[in-house]
Design goal:
The protein has about 350 residues and is α/β, with parallel strands linked by helices. Helix 3 crosses helix 9 and helix 4 packs parallel to helix 6. The relative contact order is 0.18.
Length: about 350
C-alpha cells in the first residue's frame, strides 16, 4: 500500500463529545464534534446521559465527517477509535460502532489510547505548526487528567508526574461552582481572569513531593476563603469576581509551571508540549510562551480544535499505527482505565 494515499476514519467517544474525523496522509480533511449540552443542567457529566447521547449522535457525526471530507467509505484504509481511558458507557458506543464498520468494510481496526492521542495531536500535519522534537516533555491537562509525560518516541512514553487527587480541570470547575459560575467553569474563569488582578488574593500552593500534583487542598482553601469573606460581606463574590478568578487562575498556573520547571531540570529536556482541554486556557498558553524567555524552553501549543476531545487526535495515532501495521482484532474491548 502506498503511504501516499491512506485514508483513516477516526472516532472519539471517551466522555461527552461525539467526534469523527477523516485524515489523509497525516492531514485532516474533516473534524466534526457534537457537544452534549444536557450536562450543563447537572453541573457535570452524567455517564448514563452521555452514552445515550453518543448513540444518537454517532451515525450523523460519522456521516458528516465522510461527506465533509468528500470521500466515500470504499476509500477508507482503516478505522481508528478511542479504546480508553474514559467513561465505560461512552467508550462502548464508539468501540462497538468502529468494530462493526471495520468488519462490514473488511478493513483494519486500530485501537487508540486517548491520553497518547492528546500528546500525538502535535504531529497532525498543519501549516505553520512545528512538531516537537524527541525527546520532549508533554503536560496533558484536562477535566480528568493532569500528567507530565516524557516522550521518547511516538509510542515510547513514560508518565513521570500525575495528580494524586483532582485533575486541573476539576480544580477550575469546582472553584467555579463555589463562585456560582456555570459548568464548565474553566472558560468563564479564564475570561474573567483577564479583567482581574492575579495578585489580589493569595492562595497557598499544595506541597507535593517530586513531579506529582494535588489540587484538592487548593479547592478547599478557596471554599473556606469565600465562606469567610461572605460572612463579613454578603456581596463579596459579586464585587470581586474578576480578581478572585484571576487569583485562582494565577495559582493554578503557578503550580503547573513549577512542576514543569522541575521536570525540565531533572530530565534536561527543554522541548515542552501541552495538550488536553485545559491547554486551551489563555493564561496557561501565555505562561508557557513566557517559559521560552525565562527558561530557554522550546514550546509547542496545539491548535484550539485539537485541545479538547476531538477525533483528529485519534486519527493521527491511527495513521501512525497503520504505518506500523499495528492493528487490533475484533475481540478488542473498551477499557475505562488505560495507562499510557
Amino acid at each position: 500500500m502506498s503511504s501516499q494515499n491512506i485514508y483513516i476514519l477516526a472516532i472519539e467517544s471517551s466522555c461527552d463529545d461525539t467526534a469523527a474525523a477523516i485524515m489523509h496522509n497525516g492531514k485532516i480533511l474533516s473534524n466534526i464534534v457534537a457537544n452534549q449540552k444536557i450536562h450543563e443542567d447537572y453541573g457535570g457529566v452524567v455517564p448514563e446521559l452521555a452514552s445515550r447521547a453518543h448513540q444518537q449522535n454517532i451515525v450523523p457525526v460519522v456521516d458528516q465527517a465522510i461527506k465533509k471530507a468528500n470521500i466515500n467509505t470504499s476509500q477508507l484504509n482503516a478505522i481508528a477509535f478511542t479504546r480508553g481511558p474514559g467513561l465505560m458507557g461512552s467508550l462502548l458506543v464508539g468501540t462497538s460502532f468502529a468494530k462493526s464498520l471495520a468488519y462490514g468494510l473488511d478493513i483494519p481496526l486500530i485501537d487508540v489510547n486517548h491520553m497518547q492521542a492528546h500528546i500525538l495531536a502535535h504531529f497532525i500535519k498543519e501549516p505553520d505548526f512545528d512538531k516537537p522534537e524527541f525527546p520532549f516533555l508533554a503536560m496533558t491537562i484536562s477535566g480528568g487528567h493532569t500528567q507530565i509525560v516524557k516522550v521518547n518516541h511516538y509510542f515510547d512514553m513514560e508518565v513521570i508526574g500525575e495528580t494524586i487527587d483532582d485533575a486541573v480541570g476539576e480544580a477550575f470547575d469546582k472553584s467555579g461552582k463555589i463562585l456560582g459560575l456555570g459548568y464548565p467553569a474553566g472558560p468563564e474563569i479564564d475570561k474573567r481572569a483577564k479583567l482581574g488582578n492575579p495578585k489580589a488574593f493569595k492562595f497557598t500552593k499544595p506541597k507535593v513531593d517530586g513531579l506529582n500534583f494535588s489540587f484538592s487542598g487548593l479547592k478547599t482553601a478557596i471554599l473556606y476563603f469565600i465562606q469567610r469573606e461572605v460572612k463579613t460581606n454578603p456581596n463579596f463574590v459579586q464585587e470581586h469576581l474578576n480578581d478572585i478568578c484571576a487569583s485562582i487562575q494565577y495559582t493554578i498556573i503557578g503550580i503547573l509551571i513549577d512542576k514543569l520547571k522541575l521536570a525540565s531540570k531533572q530530565t534536561g529536556i527543554k522541548h515542552i508540549a501541552i495538550g488536553g482541554g485545559v491547554s486551551a486556557n489563555s493564561g496557561i498558553r501565555q505562561a508557557l510562551k513566557d517559559g521560552e524567555q525565562k527558561f530557554g524552553w522550546t514550546t509547542y501549543i496545539p491548535k484550539f480544535e485539537y485541545t479538547t476531545d476531538n477525533a483528529a487526535m485519534i486519527a493521527i495515532v491511527g495513521y501512525l499505527k497503520y504505518l506500523d501495521g499495528d492493528y487490533a482484532d475484533q475481540s478488542v474491548m473498551a477499557t475505562a482505565r488505560l495507562k499510557i
